[in-house]
Amino acid sequence: MKNVQLAKAILIILCVGCSQSVTGQHKDDNQLLRISGIYPHLAYYNNEGECGTGAVVPWADRLWVITYGPHLPDGSSDKLYEITRDLQQIVREESLGGTPANRLIHKESQQLFIGPYAIDDEGTVRAIPYSQMAGRHTGTARHLSDPENKVYYATMEEGFYEVDVNSLAVNTLYPDANRAREKDKMAQHSPLLPGAHGKGAYSGQGVLVYSNNGEATREAVQKFDVTSGALMEWDGQDWTLVRRNQFVEVTGPGGIYGNANPETDPIWATGWDHKSIILACRQNDTWEFYRLPKASHSYDGAHGWNTEWPRIRNIGTDANPDYMMTMHGMFWKFPGTFSHENTAGIRPRSAYLKVVGDFTRWGDQLVFGCDDSANKEFANKRSLKGKIEGAGQSNSNLWFTTLDKPDHLGPTHAEGAVWVKEDVKAGEISEPFLFSGWETRSCWIKNHAEASTSFTLEVDTNGNGHWKSFRTIEMAGGDAERLVFPSDLPGEWVRVVANDEANVTAQFYYGDKDDRSVKPNHMFQGLAHVSESETTGGLLYSLGDNRRTMGIAACAYNGTEATDYTFYELDKNLQLAPKDDAATLNHITKTFAIPTNVLSVEESSILITDDKGRRWRLPKSPEKGFDALTKAGALRLAREVSTERDLFNCHGTFYELPAENADGFAKVRPVSSHTYRVHDFASYRGLLIMSGLTENSAENSHIIKSADGKAALWAGAIDDLWEMGKPTGVGGPWMNTEVVAEEPSDPYLIAFYSDRTLELSHQESHPVTIRVEADPTGTGIWMNYEEFDVPAGETVTHVFPENFQARWVRFVANQDAQVTTSLTYK
After folding, report:
1. Rounded (5°) CA angle 598-602-603
2. For 425-481, what is each residue's pLDDT tens digit?
3. In DSSP terms, which residues pair with 578 in a beta bridge?
4. What pLDDT is stored for residue 3 in this prediction?
5. What is the pTM of this model?
6. Running DSSP on this structure, what letter comes out for residue 381?
7. DSSP assignment letter at 637
8. How far, in Å, CA of 26 to CA of 48, rounded?
């Protein structure tokens, strides 16, 4: 009988997994509605300011999921979910809620410890009350001296406990700092360790390793580049500071089970600072550190709130391990053999937009637990969004994909630094920076000091710690140089040696050719073209009060004017129907109105002045219809659709826009360009919902229509946007502009575009020299790229090489002149 049940279970897994290869909305073999790998009926809600996924673990023939609210050390309305093989969701009555993200499978007792719960191999759940083990559970680890009978629990506010796996008796080693707050409301975090906002915990080599990724100061809420976070270790008696940086994941080759050979197996930790990703490895009682580039800066922020539990997990099998790392918006291939002696094999897979709290392999598919839609936007406010609110009720969902989906999302463009305007000593060597895995590789180096200096670059060819020099550069004071590395230059890691005392910036840029089509995937058919005047629209709001539906203030558009607002609701079965609810309709039309006059649509480009007063210029679409629609407030500009970062839709391009405390527009990233008049967009049950369709939109598996034909929506995953069309645009900071000698233009975005052509001209009767400067870091460190002598009456054309990358460019004329700088990105 058990064999028959097992065969049926395997068949169901295979069917569900195979169904993911078909894009769009349809029912799988279990007759369950699915769009882009998302099952709306599996969405989970709470009554808190956020509803993130803390952990996703296959166990006892089920998939177990826990959710969390933002700061709830004594429990909450969050639940423990049991997902059956046929994708039925069971809410466990033992649920205590809280802010948990811990998980450990204890082999000896055959129990899964997840959140405050212990689940045996028959699926029986026992809960440890928060009255006995208070805190936001962030990690569970094997015990140092009695691993057969005890486990450690760590909390985000540095509470540490040991728990008997049989009786679940709790022994407090260090009290959770939230208890201190009950006595002293001014207490911000535990005085036990530096940093705040605990993340990972793992044991081995005689120590318990613990990470935190934030700082509990007002400055940390506002800035991204201040001292923050810590990596610590505890030997059973004393705590030792390993490194004062933001750290998150701590694990090893044993993963969720703990290391099989704890005395000798390495311990890995991932973290970051404002420069780049940091990877740490502990072995033989010593730590070594490495750096990797960032695909996204939306995870930055010294407070640490923007980083939801990056992981390194085995998504292979016991016989054939296959580790994947999530870090700063990139899926990475991570070698399970990574150690001090063998650092080879880390490779980028693809960039993604979802906020992933945990992921696992389940059968022949991957399951990602996401953080999709928060009621409270925390510190993520900006004038560009107007008065808009977060979701009426926090909700998130699981995302099911094929095993190879992490290889087929966004381009692997990434960048990062080893030094940013830092004083270095003669002979000082940077930390190793990842060097292999991209087609094009370059480095910007600037000597900020007045004195001349030289730098030597060295490469570790095989990842075995054997370094050899391959280039030395001499630099005068104030000089900058862009180095391009040959594509056939082998090397796992690169590092920079300062031969003299200096103040230096060394920033690396890596990328692959973006071979996406400029034409959108067929899934977007039905969205209205920007030139269409008669369309349907709708302001979107995921409703509160436990309605668990989306409210739509549907309207008809004639040109730029919206008329006939009518209230509709979208339910969990994605049925769109009119409802009689004037109060909610009024709330949506007022609160979610699209703001106007928050950016300038100029002839040459889009001008944005951010909330810090900084000016930025972005490309425009060749489609002129975007001008009037943008000025009239007929197109939503910015909205949070993944927790604590915004999706920005400006003049035909979708961008990922970090929160202001993660440096905002300075680190904006283009995702895709399009020709659609998207009226509004929002997150609902893990889906990206967009309004703005043709009145007679073609049948499409992503299109949802009301029965009366007066309302329509598009639904998919946010990462479907990578297939909308590769980023393109035209424009420049100057168009017949009267410029002053040596006064630079506004910064103009160039990062992560391809096929870039620059045309320079002026209206003077004599030659004008125009200097092109680049900001590789996005922090205002400008470096000379090239100077162009532009004769009178002529246009100078320059095609940027594929290996050129920087975040921003600007232009400087050597004399007063009337100048045009035109860039085309194809």
Report:
1. 160
2. 999 999 999 999 999 999 999 999 999 999 999 999 999 999 999 999 999 999 999
3. 568
4. 40
5. 0.95
6. -
7. -
8. 32
